[in-house]
Design a protein that fits this description.
The protein has 475 residues and is α/β, with parallel strands linked by helices. It has 16 helices and 16 strands.
Length: 475
């Protein structure tokens, strides 16, 4: 996407939506400006002076909000109430459309009108949204943060890498994958369910020198013990009842590529020495045959079990364990990299909205808070499923409300309410939500709830009655 295209698009937006000041900016992964054009902004287009401080402050806040913004009267808009804005050139109405890529701010279209001008309208927002569609499509289509596609995200994964995140543990995972992908040494991947073990194995295969070969995956826990030897190593015709023809094993099928053993901790103990021999000799012998066949496959295995403990209990061979674990990659659970939760939420919202053919919705503040506070025991897979569920429940609405969340994330069943501009109403809304969450944590035990929140039993009862809350249980 060339700078010329962005320039023309920005000019069309500026012409169609008149404003006192307008800005179109794209950013790289560190927030540095990659492309920029403007009208009426001091210090832009070769003017040499500083950018208007108030507008720059508003642009930063829009990027933080991370959703389209239409403000008719800035003085009464709570989203900007805490900002200290200079009086010089203070806009009255603003219209802005920020966008992200890989969960990080990637750009913004910003327009401002002074007090003398007419406020922006919904029609203006609709035009801006439609005008931005080709930019979002092209940028997200090629995974580029820059119009020319040549500015990578510093320290982050490429667009083609599903292991997104800025947390140190996931950076280490990506660095290790990059180191081992072109070797033939066995790789052992450990991690909780939902952390992406098979995904890691596929990335190792698809980015390594064996990518032209097959990727053959087998789940050791999903195959009956009586059949797993035949599945892995193959069999000759007549080797057992029902063996009416020769069968190539999965290890042979992986020749030239990668053989992935998922849930290796569930491999039957009797079969483990045979797998060890294959790893050491690079040969397999089909069930019912006497001759060996050469295989050339890279072995990657994974488990969510503690194999050290399994070895101690005698349920997994120590020699096989060491042979598989020449290179070890440990995938961190999502709770150990909470800073990546928002990035992943935005990524999956973008991805599933596009695949479902729906406009990309935004999260209500309370829904976002609940999602970021949830510990995600099912890790990234659970988060991915939750986003997909929310999009279905939202049914094309522009906002994902807290009532659309799963009961485990919103156990109190909170529903969306518009934030009041009156302090008394906002305080009452906070008290009700606070008490509801405390009751859920204490399983509706009133004495325990009162102690946890620092109230007397009588004080708690008064507040419960005031807000129409039922403690359900005595105590």
């Amino acid at each position: 996407m060339a700078h010329r295209f962005l320039s023309r698009l920005a000019e069309a937006i500026f012409d169609q939506i008149p404003s006192d000041r307008a800005l179109f900016r794209t950013l790289d992964g560190k927030g540095n400006r990659v492309f920029e054009t403007s009208r009426g902004m001091d210090g832009m287009n070769g003017g040499g002076g500083p950018i208007r401080e108030a507008d720059e402050t508003l642009v930063r806040r829009v990027l933080e909000i991370n959703r389209p913004v239409l403000v008719t009267d800035l003085a009464s808009e709570p989203l900007f109430a805490d900002l200290e804005l200079s009086r010089d050139g203070h806009p009255r109405s603003l219209l802005a459309y920020p966008w992200t890529l890989q969960g990080l701010p990637a750009g913004v279209a910003y327009l401002a009108r002074n007090a003398a001008g007419r406020p922006f309208t919904r029609e203006n927002m609709e035009f801006l949204t439609l005008a931005m569609s080709p930019v979002l499509y092209l940028m997200r289509g090629n995974g580029s943060r820059s119009p020319e596609g040549d500015v990578p995200v510093p320290g982050d994964a490429p667009a083609s890498c599903p292991f997104m995140g800025t947390a140190l543990p996931i950076r280490r995972v990506r660095a290790m994958i990059e180191k081992v992908r072109d070797t033939d040494a066995p790789v052992f991947i450990s991690g909780e369910s939902g952390t992406g073990k098979e995904l890691a194995a596929r990335i190792i295969h698809e980015t390594g020198r064996r990518r032209a070969g097959p990727f053959v995956a087998v789940n050791c826990a999903a195959i009956p013990e009586a059949l797993i030897e035949s599945e892995l190593f193959g069999h000759a015709r007549g080797a057992f009842t029902g063996a009416v023809r020769d069968k190539t094993g999965l290890v042979e099928e992986a020749t030239g590529g990668t053989f992935f053993l998922d849930e290796i901790g569930d491999l039957p103990l009797a079969l483990q020495p045979k797998l060890l021999r294959v790893l050491e000799e690079k040969k397999v012998r089909r069930v019912g045959e006497t001759r060996h066949r050469a295989v050339d496959a890279r072995f990657v295995s994974a488990t969510n079990k503690d194999l050290d403990h399994e070895v101690e209990r005698g349920r997994f061979r120590q020699d096989l364990y060491y042979r598989l674990k020449i290179i070890a990659i440990d995938l961190p659970p999502l709770r150990e990299r909470p800073e990546d939760a928002l990035l992943l939420l935005n990524h999956f919202l973008d991805e599933f909205s596009r695949s479902m053919g729906r406009p990309r919705p935004f999260l209500s503040p309370v829904a976002l808070e609940m999602l970021l506070r949830y510990p995600w025991p099912g890790n990234v897979r659970e988060l991915q499923n939750e986003v997909q569920r929310c999009l279905v429940m939202a049914d094309g609405a522009p906002l994902i409300l807290e009532e659309y969340l799963s009961p485990k994330i919103n156990p109190a069943g909170e529903t969306y309410s518009h934030v009041s501009h009156l302090f008394s109403e906002a305080k009452a809304d906070f008290e009700k939500r606070f008490l509801r969450e405390a009751l859920v944590r204490c399983r509706h035990h009133r004495t325990r709830t009162a102690a946890e929140v620092g109230l007397s039993r009588q004080g708690l009862f008064k507040l419960l009655k005031k807000h129409g809350l039922d403690a359900r249980a005595a105590g």
